[in-house]
């Protein structure tokens, strides 16, 4: 695989992980009003989540680390300024979402 393809593939994997960790955090800390659904469903249904495995503080650090890595990695495959803006802002948006 070319470096560009490898970087894009890694970006996709890390973005998916960022989304899942953020979703797990929201399931613990979110409210019904902010989420638009009942929080705590993962725990009640017995699902193993990142906060259960690593704790909330570590999960929040993982989100920050993933955001930084994603922003850095994006420079390896973007070809326009618009793409750069999009791929650098996307992990920030996902990591800061409230629902």
UniProtKB/TrEMBL annotation:
Keyword Transferase: yes
Cofactor: Mg(2+)
The organism's place on the tree of life at top rank: Bacteria
Coiled-coil regions, chain positions: none
UniProt keyword annotations, A-Z: Isoprene biosynthesis, Magnesium, Metal-binding, Transferase
Pfam families assigned to the protein according to its UniProt record, in alphabetical order: polyprenyl_synt (PF00348)
The keyword Oxidoreductase is annotated on this UniProt entry: no
PROSITE patterns, sorted: POLYPRENYL_SYNTHASE_2 (PS00444)
InterPro entries to which the protein is assigned, alphabetical: Isoprenoid_synthase_dom_sf (IPR008949), Polyprenyl_synt (IPR000092), Polyprenyl_synt_CS (IPR033749)
GO biological process, one term: isoprenoid biosynthetic process
A GO term for molecular function: metal ion binding
Protein family according to the UniProt entry: Belongs to the FPP/GGPP synthase family.
Name used for this protein in its record: Polyprenyl synthetase domain protein
């Amino acid at each position: 695989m070319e470096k560009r393809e490898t970087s894009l593939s890694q970006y996709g994997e890390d973005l998916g992980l960022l989304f899942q960790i953020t979703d797990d955090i929201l399931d613990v800390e979110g409210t019904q009003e902010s989420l638009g659904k009942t929080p705590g469903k993962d725990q009640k249904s017995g699902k193993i989540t990142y906060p259960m495995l690593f704790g909330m503080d570590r999960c929040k650090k993982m989100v920050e680390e993933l955001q930084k890595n994603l922003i850095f990695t994006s420079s390896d495959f973007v070809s326009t300024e618009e793409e750069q803006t999009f791929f650098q802002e996307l992990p920030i948006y996902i990591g800061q979402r409230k629902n």
